[in-house]
Amino acid sequence: MQQLEWSIPANTWAGLNTKYDPSTKLVGPDEFISGSANYNLSPTGNITKRDKVELYNATPLSAPIKDEYEMIFESGTRHKLVMSNGTLYYTTGNGVFNTVQTGYVAAGNMEFASLNNEVYFGNGIDDPQVYDIGTNYGGVVYTPPTVADMGVIEPTTPVTFAADTAGGAVSAGAHTYKVTFLYRDTEESNGSPASAVHTVVNPNNTVNLTAVPIGGLGVTARKIYRDDNDGNWALVGTIDNNTAVIFTDTAALGTTPIPDDNNEPPIWGLVVTHRDRLWVAGVAATQSTLYYSDAGLPNVWPTNNFIQCNAADTINGLVSFNDKVVVFGKSSFGIILGSTSDDFQYTEVSPNIGCVDNRSIQIITVRGVPKLQWLSQFGVYQWDGSNIQLISDKIENLLQFNIQQSQGSFN
Hints:
By secondary structure, the protein is mainly β. The protein folds into 3 domains: 67-149, no CATH class; 160-249; 270-410. The protein contains 1 helix and 32 strands. The chain has one helix at 396-410; strands spanning 39-41, 47-49, 67-72, 78-84, 87-91, 98-101, 111-115, 118-122, 129-132, 136-137, 140-141, 146-149, 160-161, 173-183, 187-188, 198-200, 207-210, 219-227, 233-239, 247-249, 270-274, 277-281, 289-292, 306-308, 315-321, 324-329, 333-337, 345-350, 362-366, 369-375, 380-383, 388-390. The protein is globular and about 100 Å long. It starts with 38 loop residues before the first strand and ends with a helix.
């Protein structure tokens, strides 16, 4: 808005009948100069800032904003993501919220994290999702932003065959095939269902595959694996797009084996990024277990990528602090030590101080020293990596009342 300058004229009280005491600091509306704006005047003359009435979004959302996250993409593009009544919206800061996806459970608390120029989000109820602004994957054009289920989702249908042709080096005998999806050039799925048995007869040693499955958002290529009747599928070629549905196999032998442990993530409600991985918890069936993706591959979740934390406590918060993942239970907390999946381990810091709300966790810097602060069942605590300190003594009564209200609402 335009900046305006105004002043209160000097008052002359002599011989003036007024409801204001001559020593009062209150003034009437007729005593402001022309052009005064953006204030309200109470009946007693109190001046207050006028409430803003212009909406950011021309049409009000159907419910208050419940969850939000700002993503700055590698291109410099900024998207503010918000959840309202089970609908995901985004804005670029232009005064408009755009609908991205509907149908999420409105009661869930959506948590967000980013890695590899994508946003990952989940609420512990719906399938976890990935938010993407890519415009072309494998020759398929997308209108961003788009969302899809998180994970390297494998093909669900097998390939079929046209007649074999002469030439090629595929050995005579029985063969079966599987296909994998390659996401964003780096993340490979497990294999599709095996094809029907296909028998090659000399001299027609070129196998022509048809109905090669096409993938969804993020798939840039498909890889073809062949089993030479020995139970081992090995790579015989790659289709470098997500559009072609035929493949010609002429290879005498396959090379690398097919992946079989590149799984999808669990349905999670808590997430943090650390050491080029996503770490998640809040999984309904395993509430004291922490899961993590492969390094640099946020959609790949091998079976053994998990850590059992305090088995007697429910994980209630996650944060990356001092180059470690801090795992908060409701009544305890600990850290993850180690640098690879071979040596990750949970070490307890406190057996009786936990966190009652993941969103209370904050990192602040005091005199150059980073400190972690959070709301526990006993009050607000602070930890610098060594010393745990209660910092809410002076507001203890009010704080305990609010904690009780919070827990009642949460439960």
